[in-house]
């Protein structure tokens, strides 16, 4: 089972979202703790992974050897990669 660690910015981004969207993202992240590679996709342009939740994205680093998912950013798909 993987642990979730939130960067300060990611936690701030998540807390700014509407309650229903925040809940959907949180529930999806809980599902990812068992096997993150089932849900996260490798980013093409940079290092890291993305998780799709509707129009929202979660950008993270996954450390298999430590069993950790570090959440870096949470945002809308149109501007998450800026």
Structure description:
The protein has 82 residues and is of the alpha+beta class. Helices cover 28% and strands 34% of the residues. The model has no long low-confidence stretch (mean pLDDT 95).
Sketch the topology as an H/E string, one letter per element: EHHEEEE
List the total number of helices. 2
Q: Biggest sheet: strands side by side, in what order? A: 1-5-4-3-2
Report how far apart the termini are: 31 Å
Gyration radius over CA: 12 Å
Q: SS-based structural class?
A: alpha+beta
Percent of residues in helical segments? 25-40%
Average per-residue pLDDT, rounded, comes to: 95
Name the assembly state. single chain
Characterize the overall form.
globular
Percent range for β-strand residues: 25-35%
Total DSSP E strands: 5
Largest sheet: 5 strands, mixed
Runs in which pLDDT lies below 50 for 5 or more consecutive residues are none
Give a nutshell description of this structure.
The chain contains two helices and five strands. The chain is α+β, with helices and mostly antiparallel strands and 82 residues long. The chain has a five-stranded mixed sheet with strand order 1-5-4-3-2.
